[in-house]
């Protein structure tokens, strides 16, 4: 069965060196932290972790935009977590064969894996056809055609990254991505009337579904901004 999907491979650069220099226990602790970030971001954005690959993973999404948002947030989140092994990522989209209901075989899968191998620390390399899926808070930077092992012709690729922001940026209260009004997908108000910038429908849904403060907590000196 042939299906249209978007794929990303993510990996921790330098993980083998970390294991050799700091020991297995330290490496496992880093990996557990990385997988925790990955699970939380993918669950919120509706992207499936198709398989774990040691210190990396293969991600699959029906919607290209969800995949792009996920990998951009992952770069930001892993950097914010100060992991000693920065994330690398390769992403693409295309028609592939669905094998035995939960595996994928095809050119797009191979290309995403190769791009992950070529990406540098905190870098997302993607085929150009994913550029239209980039959100307003991200950007696709064109790169020269890229020679990829196993492919006869160079790939047309872009580097996906967060759009630079100035000191006026404020973090999305759910994912922490820096936003300004022009790059936010939604703007709401908190409990005291301040603007809240949200990056996507998924973060908006999470923010609106947060537990409401009790009457005792609302406006108390102990937690004056609970619910904001």
Automatic annotation (TrEMBL):
Molecular function GO labels: lyase activity
Keywords, alphabetical: Lyase
Guanylate cyclase domain residues: 6-116
Gene3D superfamilies named among the record's database cross-references: Nucleotide cyclase
EC number: 4.6.1.-
Source superkingdom: Bacteria
CDD domains for this protein: CHD
Region (Disordered) residue spans: 208-228
InterPro entries, per the entry: A/G_cyclase (IPR001054), Nucleotide_cyclase (IPR029787)
Lyase recorded as keyword: yes
Keyword Lyase tagged: yes
Listed name of the protein: Adenylate/guanylate cyclase domain-containing protein
Taxonomic placement: Bacteria, Bacillati, Actinomycetota, Acidimicrobiia, Acidimicrobiales
């Amino acid at each position: 069965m042939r299906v249209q999907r978007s794929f990303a491979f993510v990996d921790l650069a330098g993980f083998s060196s970390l294991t050799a220099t700091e020991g297995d226990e330290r490496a496992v602790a880093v990996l557990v932290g990385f997988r925790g970030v990955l699970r939380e971001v993918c669950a919120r954005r509706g992207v499936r972790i198709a398989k774990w690959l040691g210190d990396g993973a293969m991600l699959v999404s029906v919607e290209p935009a969800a995949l792009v948002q996920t990998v951009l947030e992952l770069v930001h989140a892993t950097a914010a977590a100060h992991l000693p092994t920065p994330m690398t990522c390769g992403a693409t989209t295309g028609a592939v064969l669905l094998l035995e209901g939960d595996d994928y075989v095809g050119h797009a899968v191979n290309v995403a894996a190769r791009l992950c191998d070529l990406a540098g620390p905190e870098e997302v390399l993607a085929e150009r056809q994913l550029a239209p899926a980039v959100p307003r808070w991200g950007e696709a930077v064109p790169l020269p055609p890229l020679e990829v092992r196993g492919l006869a012709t160079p790939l047309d690729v872009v580097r996906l990254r967060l759009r630079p922001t100035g000191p006026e940026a404020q973090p999305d209260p759910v994912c922490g991505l820096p936003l300004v009004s022009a790059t936010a997908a939604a703007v709401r108000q908190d409990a005291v009337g301040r603007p809240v910038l949200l990056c996507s429908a998924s973060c908006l849904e999470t923010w609106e579904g947060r537990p409401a403060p009790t009457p005792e907590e609302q406006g108390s000196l102990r937690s004056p901004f609970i619910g904001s």
